[in-house]
Amino acid sequence: MRKFKTLLLTWAAGAFAWAQVPPESAIGHSNFSNFTGTRPFQVGSVLPGICSVGQMFFETSAPSGQNVFACTAANVWSMIGGGSGGGSVSAGGVGAALLVSDSGTANAYKGCPNPNTTLSDGVILVLRALATNTGASTISICNGTPVPIVHANGSSLSAGEIIGATSANPAQAILLYHAASNRFELANQPYPILPVQSLVSKNAMPVTNGAAFTYMHAMLNPGEGRRTAMWLANGSGIDQMGAAFTSTSSGGSSAAVAPAGSDPVMWSTTTGATSGNSAAHATGSGGTNNFIFRTGRNLAFNWNGKFGSVSSARLYVCMTSFPAASLAATDSPQTAGAAICFQYSTSAGQSTWNCYVSNGSASSTMDSGVAPDTNPHEFGVIVDDAGGTLHFYIDTVEVCTNFPTANLPAGTNLSFSATATTLAAQQNSVATAHLFVGSDQ
């Protein structure tokens, strides 16, 4: 019993020596220098929702070097230091965009800049988001109050404008801070892989107000081995750059369409008013397609245009290995040959655009979820042969994600066609504002 008491007293004395710190009122400061270990901060994986000024917290779930936070105002945490070398720096001292690795969710992004910075007018952040946004979005910097991410005109983001990053595709969103309005402006566009613009890297996609253009044809088939071609409505026809453009019709005619409201100038071709009549815009001459773009070479196209009717209609926006007339006549393009298409057909029971791929013997389809209408729209396809992926876009938003590539055409020359077929006693039409087609060779 006496031995037990001795051990208990010894332990108690040691514990008291560990915990006892002279009060500040007695000596003016506390000296921890002789302690074998100290834990001065509260520790946890999530910052508390309530804090008092001067309180400190170590967040275990934060990236290394960005774990220490101080309560700088009631219920407001600010990260202390962070980044290589630590410390807080001003935007002017950085001289470049600051990386923010997202730890939030879709539409509600959050993270701390690396290196950390005081948020001030003109700060540029590069956000690597964990998820693609589905609508209006915000970002919380170092767990601060969420700040809206908007367009330069102040409008909210649409779905797909911030792309979730992967190891193969960083998909970085560039955000510019505007202090007066307390918002971030999205400064780049969501082309995650092989952007269409990169295939015409020397020039941006042209636009027109109806006047004819003169172009530098040197940009087509440039020295780095790319094959590109462009077509643009000019108010009286189609400017052709790199290959011919043909309008064909059964029972209809072609004419220029003047710009109206937000609609650009277009070249339109109508069908006749008999069921089965069709109209087509194709890259070719003499009524036949020129199949000059080969698969296996990172093929891409971007078409801006519209159709006259979506009632009793069969519509295609395609790259195919067969003439436009054959495409317009069928709901099953694989019977005619290879194709990479947007397809809509009321005779096939479709109420939305479908993404369609055929290798000439078998096909794959996927519903885009986007209903067709008679307004101008932008349709794009990017084949990433190196990554083994296929991407469909409507109005720059990716649709038919994770599309299967098993039936993707291979070793085939293709040409572009946009076709409208009426399936009732009524006219339809196809109209083109601009078209770009490109491949690596």
Your description of this structure?
Strands 13, 14, 16, 17, 22, 27, 28, 29 and 31 form a 9-stranded antiparallel beta sheet that branches. An 8-stranded mixed beta sheet has the order 6-9-10-12-11-8-5-7, with no helix packed on it. It is mainly beta and 441 residues long. The protein has 3 domains: 39 residues, no CATH class; 96 residues, no CATH class; 244 residues, Jelly Rolls. It is elongated and about 95 Å long. The N terminus is likely disordered. The chain is 7% helix and 36% strand. β16 and β17 form a beta hairpin.
Spell out the key features of this protein.
single chain; disordered N terminus; 441 residues; 3 domains; eight-stranded mixed beta sheet; nine-stranded antiparallel beta sheet; mainly beta; 4 helices; elongated; Jelly Rolls
Range of helix content:
under 10%
Would you tell me the structural class of the helices and strands? mainly beta
CATH topology of the largest domain: Jelly Rolls
Residue fraction in strands: 35-45%
What best-fitting shape do the alpha-carbon axes yield? elongated
Q: Which residues sit in consecutive blocks of at least 5 with pLDDT less than 50?
A: 1-20, 83-96, 191-226
What is the CATH architecture assignment of the largest domain?
A: Sandwich
Q: Can you tell me the number of structural domains?
A: 3
| Rg over CA atoms | 31 Å
Largest sheet: 9 strands, antiparallel
List the total number of helices.
Answer: 4
Average pLDDT value? 78
Please tally the β strands and state the result. Answer: 31
N-end to C-end Cα span = 93 Å
CATH class of the largest domain: Mainly Beta
